[in-house]
């Protein structure tokens, strides 16, 4: 009997890599059935998370439901779930539902685009006091902590306790840390400047800690120097060449890399952007498929991004551990398109091609009218860099409505000091509610 079943492509992760791969395989002209499994059921534009956290943009500006994205493409199915185990012999994935029950998915081709998570360098208890910046929950948590800190300070008399609530510590001098630090100072000096009676928000301290000798190490030295100058003019206090060795309720402890005594900084709001590591499913893949992984958990793959000995399994995006590929959105997008093209070529009997990454540059937003953009030999900063940054990010936003509403919001922000998405919730410990969470599933061992 002739098997007429269409090939089944299972994509794990709805980030840039998974989204672009699914888009390329969507439509009646591609003879495959695609299932896109994601733990949030939505695509998140991570590069703008900090703007959601600081009240400039709403959730809807930087995210879009995957079901809405693929509603017109009948060969694409989107599912909510988290991949927890793989059976390569059966070609089957076991996934976890938010209520902690499981289901299975079969595949002919597996594309792993699960991405990375925040790393606390072996000290996960830091997360209790220092949220990262990888998910919408992180952004909303930071928004809550940021604006609540000013509210609490308003109720306190002058003194050390009030000062600690008006001190914000950011760990990590990469783009996310620099962007967060700059935005917090802008909130303090511009957005909240005339809204309080007992405190002066512009007195808020923002401390930025990094182990290197300069911020934005992935940028050219002259651009990094301009970023340093801009941050200091904003009032951000830079502490370079130090490691954050402890985080607690009252603040952070840092240790100089060159030696010397530890220093304690009283800060009731600590934000962590210092590192990333592979998600638990990537570690499971490494063990099951015997794939070498680096210290951060990135997986070694073949030049076409497939797994050695398993040509039906691809790894894309931040999880790829070859050729020093950067953990940026552009690499994930290009990887997704490449794998989709490999699948399309094999459907018509053509060989796969090697993956070649094209560097589209780096960008960082510091404050209103101040941003950096580096594309090959082109280096832009200040207002010109800010405009170029905006054009670049808007071009990659998912969905036309997202682009239009985001542009409108940015224009309003330019014209006025207010941030229209500052609302936050404190929660209600007395309410009986069913809160769906992955916390238990993240900690449990894979079934089987």
TrEMBL record:
UniProt enzyme class: oxidoreductase
Keyword field contains Transferase: no
GO molecular function terms listed in the Swiss-Prot or TrEMBL record: NAD(P)H dehydrogenase (quinone) activity
UniProt record similarity statement: Belongs to the NADH dehydrogenase family.
BP GO annotations: aerobic electron transport chain
Domain FAD/NAD(P)-binding as annotated: residue spans: 8-336
Reported cofactor(s): FAD
Record organism: Mycolicibacterium aurum
Xref: Pfam families: Pyr_redox_2
The enzyme's E.C. designation: 1.6.99.3
Matching SUPFAM superfamilies: FAD/NAD(P)-binding domain
Protein name: FAD-dependent pyridine nucleotide-disulfide oxidoreductase
């Amino acid at each position: 009997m002739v098997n007429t079943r269409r090939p089944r492509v299972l994509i794990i992760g709805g980030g840039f890599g998974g989204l672009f791969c699914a888009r390329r395989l969507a439509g009646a002209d591609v003879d495959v059935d695609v299932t896109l499994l994601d733990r949030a059921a939505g695509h998140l534009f991570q590069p703008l998370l900090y703007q959601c956290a600081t009240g400039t943009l709403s959730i809807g500006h930087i995210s879009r439901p995957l079901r809405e994205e693929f509603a017109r493409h009948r060969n694409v199915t989107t599912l909510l779930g988290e991949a927890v185990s793989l059976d390569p012999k059966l070609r089957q994935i076991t996934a976890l539902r938010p209520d902690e029950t499981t289901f299975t998915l079969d595949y002919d081709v597996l594309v792993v685009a699960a991405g990375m998570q925040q790393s606390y360098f072996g000290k996960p208890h830091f997360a209790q006091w220092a949220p990262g910046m990888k998910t919408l929950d992180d952004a909303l948590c930071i928004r809550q902590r940021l604006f609540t800190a000013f509210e609490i300070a308003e109720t306190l008399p002058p003194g050390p306790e009030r000062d600690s609530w008006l001190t914000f510590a950011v760990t990590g001098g990469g783009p996310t840390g620099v962007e967060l630090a700059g935005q917090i100072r802008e909130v303090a000096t511009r957005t909240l400047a005339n809204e309080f009676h007992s405190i002066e928000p512009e007195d808020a301290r923002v401390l930025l800690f990094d182990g290197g000798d300069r911020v934005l190490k992935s940028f050219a030295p002259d651009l990094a120097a301009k970023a340093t100058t801009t941050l200091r003019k904003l009032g951000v206090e830079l502490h370079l060449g130090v490691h954050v060795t402890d985080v607690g309720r009252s603040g952070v402890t840092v240790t100089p890399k060159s030696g010397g005594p530890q220093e304690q900084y009283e800060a009731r709001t600590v934000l962590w952007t210092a590192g990333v590591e592979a998600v638990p499913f990537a570690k499971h893949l490494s063990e099951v498929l015997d794939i070498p992984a680096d210290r951060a958990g990135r997986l070694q793959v073949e030049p076409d991004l497939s797994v050695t000995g398993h040509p039906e399994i691809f790894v894309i995006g931040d999880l790829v551990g070859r050729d020093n590929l950067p953990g940026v959105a552009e690499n994930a997008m290009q990887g997704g398109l490449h794998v989709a093209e490999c699948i399309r070529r094999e459907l018509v009997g053509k060989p796969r091609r090697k993956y070649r990454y094209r560097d589209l540059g780096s960008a960082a937003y510091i404050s209103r009218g101040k941003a950096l953009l580096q594309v090959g030999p082109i280096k832009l900063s200040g207002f010109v860099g800010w405009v170029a940054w905006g054009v670049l990010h808007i071009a990659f936003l998912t969905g036309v409505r997202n682009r239009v509403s985001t542009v409108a919001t940015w224009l309003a922000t330019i014209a006025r000091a207010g941030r229209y998405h500052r609302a936050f919730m404190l929660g209600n410990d007395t309410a009986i509610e069913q809160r769906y969470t992955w916390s238990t599933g993240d900690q449990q061992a894979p079934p089987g």
